[in-house]
Amino acid sequence: MLSAPVAGGRFAAAENYPGRVSTTPSGAGDRLVRIGAIVFFLGALSTLVTMAPLFLGTHPLPSIAWSLCMLMGVGFLIAAAGVIRSVRAGAAKQ
Known about the structure:
The protein is mainly α. The protein has helices at residues 30-56, 63-68, 71-93.
């Protein structure tokens, strides 16, 4: 978020923001969503690495590399569980 310029061409400090800024604490499922995103991207990276030999004409990687590609689905499920947990925690507050 950019701060508004003040006289003299300088920017106001974050503490001098004229409006009210809320700092909401992390929700119930935020950590699961972050972990799920990390696991998903590790799976996506392993998928790219595993598929590269097929396009480069080299020998394919062993089956353990192919099983690491399943991390994409596992990460998606972890992140979805975090979203569901956040929704349930939000509904319980109301």
